[in-house]
Design a protein that fits this description.
524 residues; alpha/beta; Arc Repressor Mutant, subunit A; 6-stranded parallel β-sheet; 4-stranded mixed β-sheet; BTAD
Length: 524
Amino acid sequence: MVQTVAEDTRWSRRVNDDEYLPNSMEEAGGTTTKLSINILGPLRVRRGGVVIGSHELGGPKPRQVLEILLLKLGTPVSKNHLIDVLWNGQPPAEALSTLESYVSVLRRHLQPGSGKGGALRTVTGGYMIDRSMVDLDLDRFDDLLKQAGHASPEESFRLLEKALDIASVPLLGDELLAGWAEEERALHSARVASIKARAAEAAVAVGHPERAVALASELLVDDPINERAWTALVLGLEESGQYMEALRAYGRCRRVMDQEIGCLPGRPLREAHARLLQATAASEDEMDLSDSDAPTPATSQITREISILTIDDHSTFTELLTAALDREPDLRSVASATTAKSGVEQSIALKPDVVIMDFHLPDGDGLTAAARILADAPNTRIVMLTGDPTPEALRTAASMGICAFLPKGGSLSTLLDTLRYARAGNMVVHPSLVAQLGMSTPAPAPAVREVEPGGPVLTPRELDVLRLMAGGHGSKEVASKLDISLNTCRGYVKAIFAKLGTHSQLESVMEASRRGMLEQPSHG
């Protein structure tokens, strides 16, 4: 039954009137029993031989008071904080007296006969659960993790497994609607996922590959871009001699990483991939990798590194970019220059595949330098970085054959994708730069393009997804804007990739732009 604030207040006053009755029992010789409490899953309190369920603590609000205090076990929590959380920032006028009544109710159930001398303590301005008087499952979980951090590899793995067993159910299982509980649950779930990845890595290290594979597989169900989980999965399969399955797993990882975050697997995975290829080289002709998802364009380019020259007068930016490029197996920084003159000279001497150039250079503009580079090597792909392009600059760049205009402060993944896929004749202009100019389309010419006849046909919803992708939104943002689930959004993205024959968000937008698909009228 839902209580009104007035009813809640009348009830709280009755409890306050009786609050000190248990103290007389304490004075008469009442004893305090240590409590055993589970906060993972449904709340359960054991006091000696008595088990108290979550529905036996005086109602939802008293239960929540206990849960909030347990989350801060051993730490004082102010009354103001409790009031703010319980009523979501909108407390009733008599919230303080109501809170105090909830605490009285809890004391009656948790420590009968002990009054204020039990585990639920009153401190200055608030309350606290005495750690010495409570055995809390979440506290045991934390203690196991601390022990694992100082144990031998085998013992650490055992302790992590024990901790995961305790955390096998959600935190605060009774609180399905409270916003504060959902936030705590999300934080705890992320922490458990990190521990699970740590346990999977430990399983590989101590010779339990089957367990590593199981833990990693569980992680990837909820977080398909968790590289630690992919690494443990591939290494676990490799360690157990399942080379073919390991190669398939690497193929899936490579595709997901490319589609979702625009990069390739990290060094440990790439090194494992090389070992697996070597181990299976003798029977390569017999291998069936049909389940590994066809290699992405980025994968096909690994056979030949893309050489890159950076021309920018900001040394810190250049150093960071060079380090990022060198972490990518298919990209290689060959040199950098700080002026237009030295950049042109470096380009003529080194013949890089791609030049990343700042639009504003100390001795001239990037367009003039780009013209000289293209005059010497017309196939050079040039990606221009700027924060303030003009329509005239974009028209000139497009006519010259420059591949892209990107914001200098943009994301690294967008830049890496552009380096891999951008081509002359279809200049990419980042949506943020287009918005600055108030332009309706990124390409300066032609003004309107017809949809390529005989080309792939996208559904209205796929076009909605594609247009948001063109605006620089990732899968999660697209799903949110269209009010669809992330899995549904990924399904649309996969359909777009299949129809366009593309393998990444940027490549899809570029291909759709080339076909004139982004100019099709909206279907609402």
